[in-house]
Amino acid sequence: PQRRKPLLSTYEPDKRLESWLKVKKDYSTSSETLDLIPIAGWHGQGRKSQWWSPILLAVSNPQTGTLEAVTKCMSGFTDKFYQSNKEKYSPGSSNVISRPSYVEYAGEPDVWFEPQEVWEVAFADITLSPTYTAAIGLVSEERGLSLRFPRFLKVRVDKSVDEASSGEDLAVLWRKQVERA
């Protein structure tokens, strides 16, 4: 029989130890991206306190004409992007609106954006979510889908809001992910 070396340390949940590292799935393992619509934001914390961070992103639902929240994103942005985004969606501008009836989301962001942009977003995984409504009914009757570790890649100036990813697109990617697992 094979002999195993004794461990130099034991694993303890919720403790940071030099001897144990948490390994997260890399973005590069999923080459898929989604084209999402920024619909709202919160006042940032700490270094990001002057900007909107995180940003709430949505997929479209062409059948109902609604936008379904899928994730909050706060990764991949440059300070320059944060600054121009804050100026674009400054209170009092025509780009800021009151809570829209066509958005499916129970949370209370600090500001709602007029849906007008499409952002390409990378992610590590798609997960079932009790919070987000994206693709609800397509893979689960009571849960929507969300993205783990979303990261902004770029503004898709070549796409209109009508060309953004849909809940069905998200569900297709989720099913592919489940098949690979």
TrEMBL record:
One annotated GO molecular function: DNA ligase (ATP) activity
Domain ATP-dependent DNA ligase family profile: 1-61
Superkingdom classification of source: Eukaryota
The name this protein goes by in its record: DNA ligase
Pfam families named among the record's database cross-references: DNA_ligase_A_C
Organism phylogeny: Eukaryota, Fungi, Dikarya, Ascomycota, Pezizomycotina
Keyword Glycoprotein: no
Similarity comment: family membership: Belongs to the ATP-dependent DNA ligase family.
InterPro entries per UniProt: ATP-dep_DNA_ligase (IPR050191), DNA_ligase_ATP-dep_C (IPR012309), DNA_ligase_ATP-dep_cent (IPR012310), NA-bd_OB-fold (IPR012340)
GO cellular component: nucleus
Keywords: Ligase
BP term (GO), one: DNA repair
Annotated organism of origin: Aspergillus sclerotialis
Record flagged with keyword Membrane: no
